[in-house]
Amino acid sequence: MEGGIHKAESTEFRDLLYLTSKQPFILRLAFSAGIGGLLFGYDTGVISGALLYIRDDFEEVEKSTVLQETIVSMAVAGAIVGAGAGGWMNDRFGRRPSILIADLLFLAGSLVMCFAPAPAVIIVGRVLVGLGVGMASMTSPLYISEASPARIRGALVSTNGLLITAGQFLSYLINLAFTKVSGTWRWMLGVAGVPALLQFLLMLALPESPRWLYRKDRKAEAEEIMRKVYPPDEVEGEIEALRVSVESDMAQERSLGGAGLAGTLRKALGSVVVRRGLTAGVLCQVAQQLVGINTVMYYSPTIVQLAGFASNSTALALSLVTSGLNAAGSVVSMFFVDKAGRRRLMLLSLAGIVACLAMLSGVFFAVDSHAPEVSPAGTALFGANGTCPEFAGAGAGWTCTHCLRAASGCGFCADTDKLLPGACLAASDEARRACRGGRREWYSRGCPSSFGWLALVALGAYIVSYSPGMGSVPWLINSEVYPLRFRGICGGIAAVANWTSNLLVTQTFLSLTQALGTAGTFLLFCGVSAASFLLLFLLVPETKGLQFEEVEQMLGSKDYKPWRKFDPKA
């Protein structure tokens, strides 16, 4: 939208209801493409629960945090490649074929994981799913934006964002539904193929983006599609607006002189406006990930277990709360981002995140310091061969925390009164069954504690703080701070920074909990979040209420100070 980012206003949602009643083709088009957002969200959430049961089925996964991290993070690695390849495919082959290919990759990955005989095959499936997620994450909103009427575009694109959080919430519900079914994790991961297949079939009956067709000089096809989307009295005006917009874009591309990627990048970085905008945009994207959100989204049930809730099904049920709060926060953001301002909303969000992470760290310090002791007599009841090797050599003085940190891989079998001394056993299926056979809880992640509920409160408060601010505003900032002629390449750099930071966090979280302890890990994230607050305060400007040209004027001014409110009329 000329003059500023197109955001959903309340009038747009009213227009959406009116237009879709008159032109039902619009709703069919947006729903079909929007399933891509649902798939994106589902994959983000489903692995958090599936991982609990993959660990139970494969002993090598249970004993290796690096292997667990790889199973989770390979989808992110695939998404980085998929997003890059998706950008090229979108321009070369069109939006619709790109969505169809993403669906096939997602379906193939789901089936590979569902029937995987070994962890290595699960990883292959995760990479395939990641490729599909990366392509869908950028193609679905682009297709919806280009194929929908201008006055309801913001509402339709916003619903794609809501479908992502809905997909995350759905994944937790499905995870919970399959906890008592044979083949738990296989069903959890395999069921994602159903919406992918549905979207593939629906997209076969839908047209290409009219904007892409117009750029490829297939104007008659573009106009025919637009006549299905727009009311008869608006069609001619919209066709003319499309022509002007496409010709303007192509003129901008010609102004870059066909310099190619490297030449365009050099020209971009030669501009102080781009450098300042890119600093703000990349900082927001990196901070969005380094505050630790994907430790919660990918490892939420594991974190609940670290807080002292041993049961897989209990951990999944409690994790459902965090996903629901995340979805609610996305709705809140839509209503407040234009009232509170982008910069203020992010800084308030970060302040809350710092407080919540500090609280989480304190809770886990308390959990560690009040862990139940290991009883030598209670351990001996399970036989010498079942005793944790390190405990056998250390004798008395151990707690549950020492037991779980043993290098050989040990578990804590709690007493029937969970806070009393328990047994420290070498981790194995046999030891787990023997422990549970005595109606005792088996702990392999966290220790029994009376403080666990405080961790859940802090986790919920963290999501409430994160979602309305750092969850959505960084993407909005990145749509506003780049000059039009460099928006594509700058947006790509920021997106790669986001995915790469995501990969860094997901690939290291469990290793950090082993090296630093859970409390130390959250304290580290707290420190990074505090540093992010300071950097955002110093380097990210407020863009609320400014047109694109005014943002460019602000970034190029000689007395540019991001923490000052900019007056374009001064």
From TrEMBL:
NCBIfam families: SP
Gene3D superfamilies documented for this protein: MFS general substrate transporter like domains
SUPFAM superfamilies noted in UniProt: MFS general substrate transporter
Subcellular location: Membrane
Protein known as: Major facilitator superfamily (MFS) profile domain-containing protein
Record's keyword annotation contains Cell membrane: no
Annotated ranges, domain Major facilitator superfamily (MFS) profile: 29-544
GO molecular function: myo-inositol:proton symporter activity
Transmembrane segments: 29-54, 66-88, 100-118, 124-144, 156-178, 184-206, 345-367, 451-477, 489-510, 522-540
Membrane topology: Multi-pass membrane protein
Membership in a protein family: Belongs to the major facilitator superfamily. Sugar transporter (TC 2.A.1.1) family.
PANTHER family assigned: MAJOR FACILITATOR SUPERFAMILY (MFS) PROFILE DOMAIN-CONTAINING PROTEIN (PTHR48020:SF48), PROTON MYO-INOSITOL COTRANSPORTER (PTHR48020)
InterPro entries: MFS_dom, MFS_sugar_transport-like, MFS_trans_sf, Myo-inositol_Transporter, Sugar/inositol_transpt, Sugar_transporter_CS
Record PROSITE patterns: MFS, SUGAR_TRANSPORT_1, SUGAR_TRANSPORT_2
Any one annotated GO CC term: plasma membrane
Alphabetized UniProt keyword annotations: Membrane, Transmembrane, Transmembrane helix, Transport
